[in-house]
C-alpha cells in the first residue's frame, strides 16, 4: 500500500470515528472503564492470522485504555468453545470476542445441539476488517488461471480437490459455490486448520486451496503457492495482477471479515467506547499497513451498523448452507 493510500484510508476511518463520537453525549460516557485488564477471547489458535490481528489491536487498545489487553486463544468446535467461554464472563465490558465471519454466521446453524445462541447471547460491538477469499495452487502447478482450473477439472472430474478450512466455513462454502457457478467438478475437503489445507496443496494431496488472504500470503511470497484469483468485486489495488473471480462469474464475490462482540448485557456505554477506540486504532497508518499486509482492510462500524450487517450476513450464509445441503454437525 502506498503512503498516500494509507493516509487516505486512515483519514476516512478517522472521520468515521469522529462521527461516532459526536453522536454520543458526554452523559453517556462510561465512568472509570476499564478498571482491570481486558480479555479478548479468540476462537482461533495461537500463531494464526486472526491471532496476530488480535494482538496488534490489543497492544494498541491497551495503550489507549491504560490497561493490559490479554488475548486468550480458545479454538475448537467451529468456535463453540470460545463463544461458550465468553458467554460465561461478567457483563462488565472486560471480556470481548474477536471472531471471524464463519463463527458469527454459521456456527449457530451448523453445530447441534447448540451450547450457545450466538446472536442472542452476544452484542455487536464493531466490524473490524474485511478481506476477500483467495484461491491458490502449488507453485509448480500447470494451472495459472481460473479458466485453466475449470478446464482441467472438467477433463479429469475425479481428480480435482479444493482444500479448505473446517467444515462449512466461509472458505469451504466458497469452494462449493464456485463449483456450482462454474459447473466444475471440484470436490471441497475441509481440514482442521489453514496450515493443514495449505500443506495438502503443497504436498499434492489437493490441487487448489481456498482461504482468506492472510494464511495464504506468506506461502505465496515464499514461493510455495501461486495465487490465481481473488473473490473480491474487482481487482484489489495492491495486487492488480491478480484477477477477480467476479470478472468471469459476477455472483462469486466472497469476503471474509472479523468482528468484535461482547456478552449480551455489557453496558451500552462500554460498547460505544470500545467501538470508538477501536475505530481510532484502525485509523492509525501503521495498523492500516499491517492489516493490508494480511490482505484485510479496516472497516469499523458502530454497534447498530454492525448488528444490521451481521444479521444480513447470517441470512446470506444460512441460505448458502441450505443450498449446498449442509447437515448440522452433531456434537
List keywords for this structure.
331 residues; alpha/beta; D-Maltodextrin-Binding Protein, domain 2; 2 domains; two-stranded parallel ribbon; 13 helices; 12 strands; 44% helix; BUG; signal; Tripartite tricarboxylate transporter substrate binding protein; Bug_dom1
The parts where pLDDT drops under 50 for at least 5 residues are 14-30
Portion in strands: 15-25%
How large is the count of helical segments? 13
The secondary structure category is alpha/beta
Total number of strands: 12
Order of helices and strands: HEHEHEHHEHEHEHEHEHEEHHEHE
| End-to-end Cα distance | 43 Å
Short description:
Residues 1-27 form the signal peptide. The chain is α/β, with parallel strands linked by helices and 331 residues long.
Structure description:
Helix 2 links the parallel strand 1 and strand 2. The protein has 331 residues and is of the alpha/beta class. Strands 1, 2, 3, 5, 6, 7, 8, 9, 10 and 11 form a ten-stranded mixed β-sheet that branches. Strands 4-12 form a two-stranded parallel ribbon. The protein is globular, with a radius of gyration of 20 Å. The protein is built from 13 helices and twelve strands. Helix 1 (3-22) crosses helix 12 and helix 2 (49-65) packs across helix 11. It is 44% helix and 20% strand. It folds into two domains: 3-131 and 255-330, D-Maltodextrin-Binding Protein, domain 2, CATH 3.40.190.150; 132-247, D-Maltodextrin-Binding Protein, domain 2 (3-Layer(aba) Sandwich), CATH 3.40.190. The N and C termini lie far apart (43 Å).
Amino acid at each position: 500500500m502506498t503512503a498516500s493510500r494509507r493516509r487516505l484510508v486512515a483519514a476516512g476511518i478517522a472521520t468515521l470515528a469522529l462521527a461516532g463520537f459526536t453522536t454520543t453525549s458526554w452523559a453517556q460516557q462510561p465512568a472509570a472503564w476499564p478498571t482491570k485488564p481486558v480479555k479478548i477471547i479468540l476462537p482461533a489458535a495461537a500463531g494464526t492470522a486472526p491471532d496476530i490481528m488480535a494482538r496488534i489491536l490489543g497492544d494498541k487498545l491497551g495503550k489507549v485504555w491504560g490497561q493490559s489487553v490479554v488475548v486468550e486463544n480458545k479454538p475448537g468446535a467451529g468456535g463453540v468453545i470460545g463463544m461458550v467461554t465468553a458467554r460465561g464472563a461478567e457483563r462488565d465490558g472486560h471480556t470481548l470476542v474477536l471472531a471471524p465471519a464463519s463463527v458469527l454466521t454459521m456456527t449457530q446453524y451448523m453445530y447441534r445441539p447448540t451450547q450457545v445462541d450466538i446472536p442472542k447471547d452476544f452484542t455487536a460491538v464493531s466490524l473490524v476488517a474485511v478481506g476477500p477469499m483467495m484461491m491458490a495452487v502449488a507453485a509448480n502447478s500447470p494451472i495459472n488461471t481460473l479458466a485453466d482450473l475449470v478446464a482441467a477439472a472438467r477433463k479429469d472430474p475425479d481428480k480435482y480437490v479444493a482444500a479448505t478450512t473446517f467444515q462449512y466455513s466461509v472458505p469451504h462454502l466458497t469452494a462449493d459455490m464456485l463449483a456450482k457457478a462454474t459447473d466444475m467438478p471440484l470436490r471441497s475437503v475441509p481440514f482442521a486448520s489453514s496450515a493443514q489445507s495449505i500443506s495438502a496443496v503443497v504436498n499434492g494431496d489437493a490441487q487448489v486451496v481456498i482461504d482468506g488472504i492472510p494464511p495464504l500470503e506468506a506461502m505465496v511470497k515464499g514461493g510455495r503457492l501461486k495465487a490465481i484469483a481473488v473473490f473480491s468485486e474487482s481487482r484489489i489495488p495492491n495486487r492488480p495482477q491478480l484477477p477477480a473471480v467476479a470478472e468471469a462469474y459476477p455472483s462469486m464475490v466472497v469476503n471474509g471479515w472479523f468482528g468484535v462482540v461482547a456478552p449480551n448485557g455489557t453496558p451500552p456505554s462500554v460498547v460505544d467506547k470500545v467501538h470508538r477506540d477501536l475505530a481510532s486504532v484502525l485509523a492509525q497508518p501503521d495498523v492500516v499497513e499491517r492489516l493490508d499486509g494480511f490482505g484485510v482492510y479496516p472497516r469499523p462500524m458502530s454497534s447498530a451498523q454492525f448488528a444490521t450487517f451481521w444479521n444480513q450476513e447470517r441470512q446470506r450464509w444460512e441460505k448458502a448452507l441450505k443450498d449446498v445441503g449442509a447437515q448440522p454437525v452433531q456434537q
